[in-house]
Amino acid sequence: MKKIELLKELGKYPLFNLKTVRDMTNKDGNYTKLLIHRLKKDKLIFEIEKNKYTLNKDSFTIASNMIWPCYISGWSAVSYYHLTDQIPQAIFVITTRARKKREIIFNNTKIIFTRVKPKYFFGYKRERYGDYDIFIAEKEKALIDSALLKKISFSEICDIIKDNVEDINIPLLIKYLIKIKNKSLMKRFGFLLDRLNIKNDELSRLIDFKYIPLDELISKKGKKDKKWRIIDNVGL
User: Fold this and answer.
1) Domains in the chain: how many in total?
2) What is the CATH number of the domain that holds 36?
3) Residue-level pLDDT at 87
4) Whether 104 and 140 share a structural domain
């Protein structure tokens, strides 16, 4: 197979490995390693990590295809949906599988992998992104993931939801909160929705009586809300 034809075939994959090239060329392992070495040297392909290569320089595409199953969430997903003007400092990837390297750098972009329990792995979808498919959290799940895994402060989540409430599926948000069964999240999001005059009685019936700060990353001083057992240290 000629080099141009090989690169054209490899370009159909967001990333590939030695076996991919070996199967395409019908050559042995030593020849394949030499071929990949030459392609890398000529900067026709790029090495992501050991035995993972690509022709693509887009970090978003690479992040979503590094491990299976996985999906992009956190600031990356929030920014993808234009719910914030902030530029993410890294691409946040959720997976149920363990990786030796929890962080990698590709094309000057940090990609961070976070392992979660299978019960938290839902609320994502397949999207066409450029020439490839990616898996990314739905808006509502991206916000919940960010709060659950402390990737975005709840103060910032409050601002995101207030600024984009018409673009967020509130019933779906509530449904996912109930599915996760995290009482602290139910309190925080329930309190926020109350302040936005959005009914969410389903959540109020599932919380406990322990007071928690609305944003656990700042001073815990604030007015107490008896309904949600929230200390409003944000000033909503």
Assistant:
1) 3
2) 1.10.10
3) 87
4) yes
In Å, how far are 201, 208, 228 from 186, measured between CA atoms? 11, 10, 9
- Residue among 151, 11, 126, 5 nearest 76 (CA): 151
- Name the residue range of residue 31's domain: 3-55
29, pLDDT greater than 90: no
Start-to-end CA distance of the chain, whole Å, equals 64
pLDDT of residue 1: 72
Is the preceding omega at residue 69 within 30 degrees of 0, hence cis?
yes
Which own/partner contact pairs does 179-186 have at CB distance under 8 Å and 24+ positions apart?
179/122, 180/119, 180/120, 180/144, 180/148, 181/206, 182/148, 183/207, 183/208, 184/212, 185/144, 185/147, 185/148
Identify whether the C-beta of residue 115 lies closer than 8 Å to the C-beta of residue 93.
no
Q: What pTM value is reported for the model?
A: 0.93
Render pLDDT for 129-157 as a digit per residue (tens, 0 to 9): 999 999 999 999 999 999 999 999 999 99
What is the CA angle 85-82-68, rounded to 5? Answer: 115
Q: How far is CA 136 from the centre of its chain?
A: 6
